[in-house]
Design a protein that fits this description.
This protein is mainly beta. It contains one helix and ten strands; from the N terminus they run ββββαββββββ. It has one domain: Jelly Rolls. The chain has a five-stranded antiparallel sheet, with no helix packed on it. Strands 7-6-9 form a three-stranded antiparallel sheet, with no helix packed on it. It has a two-stranded antiparallel ribbon with strand order 1-2. It is globular, with a radius of gyration of 17 Å. This is Cupin. InterPro entries: OryJ/VirC-like, RmlC-like_jellyroll, RmlC_Cupin_sf.
């Protein structure tokens, strides 16, 4: 049975006491651009400085990548064999769908369709289930297994599932300034 992402959020009531404000299984989002994958937009903070202690707790999950000082937590279930070439889709249809469902997702991707991209984020990428391959721009690869954590520091890379089983990853993205 695959793991189902669950979101539990704490906050404060009007008396300043710690309370649970949310407990749910987020709906998945899928797009043609990454067929068979399920995105779970868990939580995020606005760009700038994160704040705690208030009673108005609302996630910021769009755009897909945070700006400087913002954050996002995303679970992504990669389909088996996502490293295999996919049929050519209508590019306008793909871009339009992603712009609606996951705005900003395609912005850092290169046009050649190999999945390589570079983001202005520090990413903590944690393998929860299955195996996923991380490829860097020089062709170097590492296979992540459950419990692996990659610290992605704005490098050019691509993620690929070369396995016959889905892979579940948790990505924590912090918007950063590129030097």
């Amino acid at each position: 049975m695959p793991i189902e992402p669950r979101l539990i959020v704490t906050g404060h009531n009007s008396a300043g006491e710690a309370v649970f404000v949310e407990d749910r299984h987020p709906e998945s989002v899928s797009v043609q651009a990454l067929r068979g994958a399920d995105f779970f937009l868990m939580w995020g903070t606005a760009d700038g400085t994160a704040k705690v202690g208030g009673t108005d707790v609302a996630p910021v999950v769009r755009p897909y990548f945070p700006g400087v000082g913002g954050s996002r937590v995303i679970f992504l279930r990669w389909a088996p064999y996502s490293a295999e070439p996919e049929p050519v889709l209508d590019p306008d249809s793909v871009r339009s769908e992603v712009a609606e469902k996951l705005p900003g997702l395609l912005d850092p991707f290169e046009e050649n369709g190999d999945g390589m991209h570079t983001t202005d984020t520090i990413d903590y990428a944690i393998c929860i289930e299955g195996e996923l391959c991380l490829e860097l721009d020089n062709g170097a690869e590492k296979t992540l297994t459950p419990g692996s954590c990659v610290i992605q520091q704005g490098t050019r890379h691509a993620w690929k599932n070369k396995n016959d089983k889905p892979a579940l990853m948790c990505y924590v993205q912090i918007g950063a300034v590129r030097e």
